Amino acid sequence: MRSALAAAILIVASPAFAQTAPREFPAVLAGHAMLPANTMLTPPADAPADLQTSGKFVTPMRRVEEPGTVMGRSAGRPTGLSTPLRGQPAQGHSGIKRMPDGTFWVLTDNGFGSRANSPDSMLYMNRYRIDWTSGAFERLETVWFSDPNRRVPFRIANDATTTRYLTGADFDLEGFQIIGDKIWIGEEFGPFLIRTDMQGRVEAVFETMVDGQVVRSPDHPAVVAPATPTTPIDTRVRRSKGYEGLAASPDGRFLYGMLEGPLWDTATRDWEMTEGRQYLRILEFSVAEARWTGRQWRYVLDENGLSIGDFNMIDGTTALVIERDDNEGVPERACPTGQRAETCFHALPRIKRVWKIEMSEAMVGGNVRKIGYIDLLAIQDPNNRSRVPLSGGRFQMPFFTIENVDVVDADHIIVGNDNNLPFSSSRDPNKADDNEMVLLRVPELLRAR
């Protein structure tokens, strides 16, 4: 990547180029596929019996064994799908990579949202073939993550078993890359960078280094609650704000981990900011040397409090990033102004975007350049590809979390949601979201400089 980055320096140095304001580019729906929310996978035959059902611990301090007895809720609204679930849900899509044969590897996250409620949620990734004509997903294979060689440096939920399958009590997997015969995963609890073989067996776990120091979240296994309420916990990463995106240079030499939220600035006693706006760290990792290089970039959020959903390189100097708010819903099902109910959306989404950014050599240590974006709430559908009703004549991705983006070809990208099963209902206030993928025609965005 560095040779490509160096070649971009002269371009970035041009004052006229540097002053170009970010632009909104059109997006046209070219395909829409849906995997039903209630899609379950059968665990491997050698998995512990405890993993035959999932979601037994979604209610704090209450173990529930009977399937289908605890209703899922999204912002207080019942979603129509209840836990525990028979099997492992094919949900929580949190990272995607297009393969040369046109199939897609898709990563699932920790399960039900926290370490405490996901010890029976297995960690895995699926390879799918997506039929854009029928809108169907065809699952081709599954990789179940495990630690048979005891490379994880802390006790895992299935530590005493022989298979040592990993669960959402161990890691929260959010972004990945396949380089050679290795899978590299960025996760949120540590946050850690994990390397596995292509069978999902852990080979190494790396702490996150920022400015020469280890940074941790409250969910890191080494972080313990203080003895007294007056003692603060020494962490700089907010819970659930570890790695959300993990990109790789086209030559596979470097990984780029992007945190979902800003780090805590111990000097200012506030979140890291530049000119009043929060920024996220993008950290470079050398694959060959298996270490953080110390090189980094800053991704400045459009508004404080926003999050990113995924991060993948387009080429050696540019990348795609999903930036979003925490709202969900469609205007047709909005609550009356100032009201809130179980059957309507009280806080509609405002910002659901895919940005194209530049992170050149000249920008190391500084801010990436935001070139332009597409609005996922205003997608054109002239060819009637949508499988759901349009909103004001436009196709919308109104989801709480949208966590999958990658380049498909010179004109198209793929974008998908994380449906947080059974806790998100973004199209219908009382129906659990399906796993959706959309094929978007965005030539202007991909060619923008």
Q: Would you give an account of this structure?
A:
- This protein is mainly beta and 449 residues long.
- 4% of the residues lie in helices and 39% in strands.
- It has one domain (2-447): Neuraminidase, CATH 2.120.10.
- It is built from four helices and 31 strands.
- The strands form nine sheets. A five-stranded mixed sheet has the order 1-28-27-26-25, with no helix packed on it.
- A hairpin with a 2-residue loop joins strand 16 and strand 17 (213-215).
- The radius of gyration is 21 Å and the shape is globular.
- The model is unreliable at 1-19 (pLDDT under 50).
Backbone shape: globular
* Widest sheet: strand ordering: 1-28-27-26-25
CATH architecture: 6 Propeller
Topology-level CATH name: Neuraminidase
Q: How much of the sequence is in beta strands?
A: 35-45%
Sheet of most strands: 5 strands, mixed
Q: Would you tell me the structural class of the helices and strands?
A: mainly beta
Low-confidence stretches: 1-19
Q: Please work out how many helical segments DSSP would assign.
A: 4
Number of strands: 31
- What's the N-to-C terminus distance? 18 Å
- For the record, the CATH class is Mainly Beta
What features would you highlight for this structure?
globular, 5-stranded mixed beta sheet, disordered N terminus, 4 helices, 4% helix, 449 residues, Neuraminidase, 5-stranded antiparallel beta sheet, mainly beta
Q: Short summary of the structure?
A:
With 449 residues, this protein is mostly beta strands. It contains 4 helices and 31 strands.
